[in-house]
Amino acid sequence: MNREECIQDREWTEEEKRALIRLAGERHPSRSLEERTVRRLRQEGLLANRSVRWWHAPRVAWIGAAAAAAGFFFLLGVQFGQRWGAETTAELLTAQHRDDIRSAESRVQATGSAYVEAMTALAALASNRDPQEMGQAREAALSAFYGAATQLVALDPNDPVAVRLLQGIEEFDKRSPGEKKPERKVYWF
Amino acid sequence: MKNRDREWVRTLVENGDERAFRHLYRAYTPRLYGFVLRVIRGAESDAEDVVQDTWLKAVANLHRFRWESSFSTWLIGIGLNQSREFLRRRARLQPTDNPVVDLLPAPQVRQGEPGKRLDLERAIGRLSDGYRQILVMHDIEGWTHREIAENLGISEGTSKSQLFNARRQVRAMLRPAVEVEVLS
Q: Distance between CA atoms of B40 and B127, rounded to whole angstroms?
């Protein structure tokens, strides 16, 4: 080996080695190469199953999948809407029922008050010997009874006690000739 | 990574699983493609054809792979053979490279463009096919002379002398024009 060859017969310099390392970097082929290679492998029978990624599915499949998804979400929305609407309606009905109950309770209370009014008036009648005052007390008691019966009938039109009370009082009013028919009004406090 | 490679290879061999192939393809093709591109010194479309043939060969023979080397080394070895096959086909259609001519600097350098150098990759690309293969395998891909000798069917001594000649040619091409004129 002559001197020239000895000079040449050396490892790369550090700079040259770095340049060579840079050359060893990856290069990327076109994206279609992968699909072409897969197709060739399938043609050669070297790939057994066609495990197509869902995003590789053809356009028709995409449209079908989109339509199915839309239909599913629509039905889901209908179900939800119906349930929500039903729940809202149920709440409304419940509120209505609650109102009816409260209304009924107030009627019962009014009936009770009327009953107490009547009893008080009767008690006053029993202890009072003045005919005029007795007449007034009697009228007050009857009016209270009438009011109570009216409330009962409102609660239950077929209530026998309420119906008889009303019939009895109205009959009594008819049999009192010459007397000014009393105005059966009860004022609740 | 090695354990994952074994799993993908096993799945591909046993089931012909496409997903396993795609994993291996994406992991190793960039390096394989760069190697092939450099060895065949051809158009990118030619390199892609060689890469495709490489994968076909690799998948067809995967059942024979015994993990005595890394999957990458094994695959590059197949890529080298496919590249040499391509070069043989091309040589039949084109005039063969003249190693003597390749010792001279590029014409534009000799025409006196002071300080003008060929860059390293272009210089390697101007080597003859044989010199270029060995220089790429040893100095860029990091193969040993033993591995090169086994893959090319030559002796280790031949591999070393070929590498020596390849490096000398590259250095000659990288020398600036002024230097060349002084030496001549």
A: 11
